[in-house]
Amino acid sequence: MEGNLGNGATLDGISLGINGANITMFGSGSANASRIRKEFVTHPISGASLATTNFTIGMNVTLRFSSGSNTMLYNGCTATSTFNTTVAAGTTLTLAGAAGTGNIAIDGLDGAGGFAAGGSLTVNGNVIIPGILHATTNNVLGNPTCSIVINNGGYVRTSQVNAAGSGTALHSFSVLFGGHLEITGTPVAWTNYLTNE
Questions:
Q1: Of 13, 75, 151, 182, which alpha carbon lies 20 to 30 A from 175's?
Q2: Is residue 196 one of the residues assigned to a domain?
């Protein structure tokens, strides 16, 4: 993308549904939206399977809502599906909510979606989350798991991490050598912390 998506700091309600098999967002333009989410497991016209989406953010992207604590990057499918998101090295994904608002989840809006939604968030660049990073799932064994990986050179700043106990499908959160996780604790650093998963 070499032009502008969205209207900068002015909220215009653009939401991106990312549903193809392998999609990369890249370019030197400006990308602003309210949210990015996976919505479909089949193509609405051809009926082809879209159960797994691999999405790479290869440019700076800003997500914002006008107010409230909203989840801005997540798998929102209503059937078994996987949404793997990678933030490329040298790029920044910024959630521009007020302090304590603006969340990322993998399974639904808060790690407890009503359907078997899973996937991963792999961070090679920078991710700024003023709200909650939901590192949990309520999926059952045999359904997609949820994982967060901060690789060497990756940086995540968040106000909170929700690491509540998962369903039997489990979740994982890894900060690898050279990766950085900063938790600001607004209003608390770890909610529902469970250490045995």
A1: 75
A2: no
Give domain status of residue 187, yes or no: yes
15, 38 contact by CB (below 8 A) = no
Q: 152-165 pLDDT, tens per residue? A: 999 999 999 998 87
Opening angle at CA 33, ends 18 and 138, nearest 5: 55
How many whole angstroms separate alpha carbon 134 and alpha carbon 95?
Answer: 14
pTM here is 0.91
Greater confidence (97 vs 81) lies with 81
Contact between 122 and 87 (Cβ < 8 Å): yes
| C-alpha dist (Å) from residue 98 to 66, 126, 128, 185 | 9, 18, 12, 14
